[in-house]
Write a structure and sequence with these properties.
Elements (H helix, E strand, L loop, with lengths): L6 E8 L7 H12 L2 E8 L2 H13 L4 E4 L4 H7 L2 E2 L1 H6 L4 E5 L3 E5 L2 H13 L7 E5 L3 H12 L4 E5 L3 H10 L7 E3 L10 E6 L17 E9 L7 H10 L3 E2 L2 H16 L5 H10 L3
Parallel strand pairs: 1-2, 1-3, 4-6, 7-8, 7-10, 8-9, 10-11, 11-12
Antiparallel strand pairs: 3-5, 5-6
Helix pairs in contact: 1-9, 5-6, 5-9, 9-10
Length: about 280
């Protein structure tokens, strides 16, 4: 640590997290401002999360990211939370407030919209959006997508009841339509299709068809690197524009970094470095 600089102790909680890019991303952010940070990986499941979080805080930890399978636990363990967290019932960013404890944020949706609009020029207003999946990944981005005033949002999921419950949770913002994979072809075509499933981690792609995409539409995958390859390959075979989730990963991290430090990092240079392998 440089003399006279305060060390900012940060961490990532989740399981598994050995291959996470988050430590690299936040060190690159810190370098932009000459900040000294310690960003460690703390691997734990649900059973040990509360104890691990307390130990981290007692050792001087002031902020952390939370990934699978702990995002719902992070929301439940926090003493207060943002509106986005309350809607999603999941948190990916915690900041410790000495007077009250852990405050929970969810930067996933803001990160997605920042990547779509800021890095790729994708507008949400007035457009039809299809979201594949109704789990925690979809819940984390729904609020921000609805704030963009799309014409319609459709959730498709194997478990229709789960999709209906998620849609009802966001009903105060806007109506969300729910459909099954069997009935999806009857829903017409979309301007933006967002893959929020984990199929890519099993080497599979969702069963999308060319007719589901409008002219000039975009398929956005929340996955990146190896997990994004199946859907990317499918889109290439259809001649469909495809964007992976690496930009979202960096953009949501930038939102977390601002919450912890009050600094707005240049996310684009970090995205470019990660794509070039210069990390």
């Amino acid at each position: 640590m440089a003399q006279g600089k305060e060390l900012i102790r940060l961490a990532l909680f989740g399981q598994p997290i050995n291959s996470s890019l988050s430590p690299r991303i936040h060190r690159m952010f810190a370098d932009q401002f000459g900040l000294d940070i310690e960003y460690q990986r703390i691997e734990t499941g649900t059973a040990g999360f509360s104890e691990a979080l307390e130990s981290f805080q007692l050792a001087g930890g002031t902020g952390c990211n939370v990934t699978l399978p702990l995002k719902r636990d992070a929301w439940q363990l926090s003493t207060d939370s943002s509106v986005e967290v309350s809607q999603a019932q999941a948190a990916n960013t915690l900041v410790y407030q000495p007077s009250s404890g852990w405050f929970a944020h969810n930067t996933d949706g803001a990160g997605l919209v920042a990547d779509l609009a800021g890095n790729h020029g994708v507008d949400l207003e007035g457009h039809r959006i299809l979201i594949l999946g109704a789990g925690g990944a979809a819940a984390g981005v729904l609020g921000s997508l609805l704030a963009g005033k799309p014409r319609q949002v459709v959730l498709v999921n194997r478990n229709l009841e789960r999709a209906r419950i998620l849609a009802e949770r966001f009903d105060s913002l806007s109506g969300i339509d729910v459909t099954s994979w069997v009935d999806l072809p009857d829903m017409g075509s979309f301007d933006l299709v967002i893959n929020a499933t984990s199929l890519g981690h099993q080497g599979e792609a969702p069963p999308l068809q060319s007719a589901m995409f409008n002219t000039g539409s975009v398929c956005y995958d929340l996955n990146y690197y190896k997990a994004s390859r199946p859907l990317k390959s499918l889109c290439e075979s259809m001649g469909q524009k495809y964007i992976d989730g690496l930009g979202m990963l960096v953009e949501q991290a930038a939102k977390s970094f601002f919450i912890w430090t009050g600094k707005c990092p240049d996310s684009r240079v970090v995205i470019e470095a990660l794509r070039d392998g210069a990390v």
